Amino acid sequence: MVEADPAVRPRLRLPREIRVLAAAAFVIAIGYGLVAPALPAFARSFDVGITAASAVVSAFALFRLGFAPLSGRLVGRIGELRTYLVGLAIVALSTGACAFAAQYWQLLVFRSLGGIGSTMFTVASVSMLVRLAPPTMRGRASGLWATGFLLGNVTGPLVGGGLVTFGLRAPFVVYAVMLLVAMTLTGLLLRGRAGRVADNGQTVPDLTIRTALEHPAYRAALVGAFANGWAVFGVRVALVPLFVVEVLGRTEALAGIALAVFAAGNAVTLLSAGRLSDRRGRRPPILVGLAVSAVATGLLGVVPTLPLFLALSLVAGLGGGLLNPPMNAAVADVVGNRARGGTVLAGFQMAADVGAITGPLVAGAVAQVAGFGAAFGLTGLVAVVALVLWARAPETLPRD
């Protein structure tokens, strides 16, 4: 078949189901941001130390990581939509229970259970995204979904900070109600539209992670997800505020601005990166995104002034936005529409989670011994490793 000129392809709308998933992602993310400002202080209200308060945050991530493989198997066994709705229900109930925790250990248990539900609906939603998006629109679908999460994460803490004035328990109640509403609406809108049957009437087969690992693009995506988790969800959150305060001598408020600048750069490029990957291929924006992220992040620890630090944070955010949608789309290409890749997608998610957990620990230790320059330099080097693997990986965008 002769490929149509990308410049004259008709502009198609994403399926309604994709837009429903993106809207739900926004609601979920804004709710997560609601509880973020209150959670550490709420834990401290039980007369525990800083380490114990931080453990509540870490427990959510650890349970999310540990339950990811089982979430992938649940997608194949009970279906994507059921796994998605059950995951939302678990997070809603556990979050509501947090509001009524009477002791620290109860808060720790309830928050940990939320990590299980979180990985369930994340793996299930990505699996639905993979199967429901047309092959030549996977980049746009991934970009829209990621934008929903990003906007929710930016908006949530602003609203959550206001809710705290009504008490530390109020954000948990509001988030639980929001999740129940999201669960009800998505269940109604997606009912009958996210089934388990292929076009020929046969059950959709499962793609094993062993088979996926035979594809160079999937191996590169795992390393890319690890590098992205290390830099974006780990080192950026853990070390950027410390660098602004301890090295540049600025206030915590300016440290928050540095994080917001990165998020702004991310938001600028997410949707355009998805469209570009659908037209020109997955590899070009991935390679550019990794290169930009590696250079900008690697230089963060040696800049002498706040304006230059903010400029590099913006550039690093632009690189991260270029990277995410096409890499998600490449994994979707490996899975394909006619296979169910719950465990494959769970492995991809786990790679990012491992990076997010490992990055702050390793980079923090390096910063303690050799300084922030070495820590951010190491983070840039991790992105370079992913860049090398993607440079050797084949293009996955279907050309028919």
Task: Walk me through this protein's architecture.
The protein is mainly alpha-helical and 400 residues long. It folds into two domains: 16-193, MFS general substrate transporter like domains (Growth Hormone, Chain: A, Up-down Bundle), CATH 1.20.1250; 206-400, MFS general substrate transporter like domains (Growth Hormone, Chain: A, Up-down Bundle), CATH 1.20.1250.20. It contains 14 helices and no strands. It has helices at 16-35, 39-44, 50-78, 80-99, 104-132, 138-163, 170-190, 209-213, 216-247, 252-280, 283-299, 306-335, 342-370, 372-392. The longest helix has 32 residues, at 216-247. The protein is globular. The termini are close together.
- Examine the secondary-structure arrangement and name the CATH architecture of the largest domain: Up-down Bundle
Strand content: under 5%
**Residue-averaged pLDDT, rounded?**
85
The percent of residues in helical segments reads over 70%
Helix count equals 14
Structure classification: mainly alpha
How would the global form be characterised?
globular
Going by CATH, the homologous superfamily of the largest domain would be: MFS general substrate transporter like domains
What's the CATH first level of the largest domain? Mainly Alpha
Main beta sheet strand tally, sense and closure: none
- State the low-pLDDT regions, or none: 1-11, 196-201
Between the first and last Cα atoms, what is the distance in angstroms?
A: 7 Å
Order of helices and strands: HHHHHHHHHHHHHH
How many structural domains in the coordinates?
2
Tell me the Rg in angstroms: 21 Å
Q: What name does the CATH topology of the largest domain carry?
A: Growth Hormone, Chain: A
Number of strands: 0
